[in-house]
Protein: Queuine tRNA-ribosyltransferase
Organism: Helicobacter winghamensis
Amino acid sequence: MEFNLQKTDNNARAGILKLAHGEVPTPIFMPVGTQASVKALDFNDLLALNAPIILGNTYHLYLRPNDEIIATLGGLHSFTKFPRNFLTDSGGFQAFSLNSNVKHQEDGILFKSHIDGSRHFFSPQKVLDIQYNLNSDIMMILDDLVGLPASKERILESINRTTKWAKDAITYHNFKKQEAIDCGNPLTNNIFAIVQGGTDKEFREASARDLTSLGDFDGYAIGGLAVGEPNAEMYATLDFTTPLLPKDKPRYLMGVGTPQDIVEAIARGVDMFDCVMPTRNARNGTIFTHFGKLAIKSPRYKLDTQPLDPKCHCYTCTNHTRAYLHHLFRAGEMSYFRLSSIHNLAHYLNLVRNAREAILKGEFMQFYKKFYAELES
């Protein structure tokens, strides 16, 4: 993997991430394909949207269809026929979101399947083995994610456990890399560490210091945000966390968020994002536009012949009206899910592309001000 930082504008950054399945211009938003599929879309849609990387879920793909099956079928790229890059997360978020089925231990996470109740154990090494089978381009290490607010004792436990698991993961990954080289088939999988610490500056500094001191990670994620804290606290945490991370490595803010969150995080030096929000909100009738959110089920759109967003040139906005999308949603037509998801993902992808263009021109602050001016118009 190569990461070339092309331009900075204050703290905002534009770069190129070179992976085995193509270049990824940053900042970038990664559509979420939990089950190796972005809900309601096929990969022709994603290629038409020019998405260079999508996210798959290690926990879910381990349970169904199983990582060994995917490996037998040639890994995620062969299995899905999506020719571009995959990032797979570690299962740490599922341990957080499915906490009634989970028990944290010092050497990993014991959980019961939400599908059939069977018991499984994720160690740092096991999580990487699953992702080697998936053959994802970027693999996330196992971390201990904490919801907020949380006690200082629980956050300290989280960062200590995350650091321990990171040591285990990088040691194991380096061993597997050397083993692959010795066999004449070098790995193309890259590994990212995850900084924890809640919104506490001291804890974030400790986590970032411990993880960066381990070396060898290809990138660094900021985890444990957008899990209950106010937006202002999240932005303040980014203010003091991003400068702690290496300038020559990509920075990934996990699971965030709204268009405003993404713009604010780009302004603070973040390069990569993912979130289920654009597709989940689309399916539930919420459309993102340059001028804010639009509830397509509202009767006000019954006769509206405008596109969802007059400033958008996606397939949906080029070919269909608000009135038609309103009708499809109210009628429960499945085509609504596809058309609305295409638009919302186009909105997010165009947002980061426009931010990138502004950074390269040294005009990010003008972009930032215009973004908020349109929301308020």
